[in-house]
Amino acid sequence: MIDLTALFSSWQPILFAIVAVLFARAFVIYPLSLKVFKIPVRMQHVIYWGGLRGAISLALALTLPEALGNETQTLLQDMTFGVVLFTLLVQGSSMRPIIKRLGFGARTKTQEAYERHQARAVASQNSYDRLKELRDEGLISDHAWGILEAPILRQIELRKEVVQEIMHSDRSVEVAELDRAFQEILRIQRTTYNTLLSTGTINEDTFMVLVNEVDAALLNQEVSYGDLLIRRTKDQPPITKLIFASVTESDMYETLHMMSIMGIPTTRLFSQLGLGGKQSVTLLMGVEENQVEMVVNTIIDCCEEPPKFRRGLFDFLPSGDAEERIEINNSHVYVFNVEHYEDI
Fold it and tell me: If exposure means fewest CB atoms within 10 Å of the residue's CB, which of 82, 279, 296, 340 is most exposed?
């Protein structure tokens, strides 16, 4: 039983415990998520605030040894009960508005209408396929099938047309569907890697590298793959930055793979010999303003063997032509402003 009177009388220790728990969780979540797991900031906020506590905390508090003394035992139990109530009542009740505020799961009326009509179209198609199987098995007569087939096909066609109209009327619906398809592709790839590991086709180290790539793409909420696939429109953020990255040939494949996962179109410009005889290549990427930091950080993470140059394309540019020249472990990344961009 929870003694509410005792909880109110211990409000100061409880407040201290709540602040300590929140600080400790922030100290663990944000550095690890940013440096180790590369989790997007929005997702970090959800992980941080979603640290609800309950049964285990209470069970541990109720099993404190008597050697602590009755007063200390009671105080620790009250502090635990207070923290648990805070996480359940305050954090638990505020999770939905926070998630909506951060943009997770936000849907327009058009998207809701699309889901309803899409579900009806899929259900109609599955009904038709099942009835056809029953006809083939002899469980439905040809006479009944002849009566049912035409109206069911008309219903399927009409529902598919409605779905197409909704999709073309709202770009966000088309983007969301492409994003879901891309995530399904990544999940299939992850399942395939598990199969290859279990059959001994790849070893544990290779498996971890491949799975970490897929997981990073699945967790990346900052980039919409569907948005990048659809032809850009005037109301969309323009391409404002041009990124040139010079990497070694051995790092090129990893970089191109990660750019592909992130949905960043990348072009290989040329190859040259750097110092030490290592082959180096230059990659070109056109990105939006808010994608520069993410793309540059990804390139840097992919460069295990950054090259050193005697001379290259950018040695011929007058000083100041590059908006920014970033050098990380001798790996050069140049970011230029784009004055004009248009689709061809």
Answer: 340
Domain coordinates in residue numbering, the chain: 4-101, 109-169, 173-228, 231-337
**CA pair distance 129, 121, nearest whole angstrom:** 12
Q: How many whole angstroms separate alpha carbon 290 and alpha carbon 207?
A: 32
By C-alpha distance, which of 256, 270, 242, 243 is closest to 303? 256
Which amino acid is residue 339, in one-letter code? E
pTM, rounded to two decimals: 0.50
The C-alpha angle 306, 312, 313, rounded to 5 degrees, equals: 120
Name every residue whose Cβ is closer than 8 Å to that of residue 320 and which is 6 or more positions away in sequence: none
- What CATH class is the domain 231-337? alpha beta
**H-helix segments, the chain:** 4-9, 11-31, 41-49, 55-62, 70-85, 92-101, 109-136, 142-169, 171-198, 204-219, 225-229, 249-262, 292-302
List Cα–Cα distances, 105 to 52, 109, 299, in angstroms.
Answer: 20, 13, 30
pLDDT tens track, the chain, 344 positions = 566 777 788 888 889 999 998 898 888 888 877 666 667 677 788 888 887 777 788 888 888 888 888 888 888 888 888 888 888 888 888 888 888 777 676 677 888 888 999 999 999 999 999 999 999 998 999 999 999 999 999 999 999 999 988 888 877 788 788 888 888 888 899 999 999 999 999 999 889 888 887 887 776 655 566 665 655 554 566 778 888 887 777 777 778 777 776 767 788 876 555 545 566 778 888 888 777 877 887 787 777 655 333 334 444 444 445 566 666 555 566 788 877 766 55
Q: Report the alpha-carbon distance of residue 249 to residue 302 in Å, rounded.
A: 12
Instruction: Count CA within 13 A, CB hemisphere, residue 29.
Output: 18
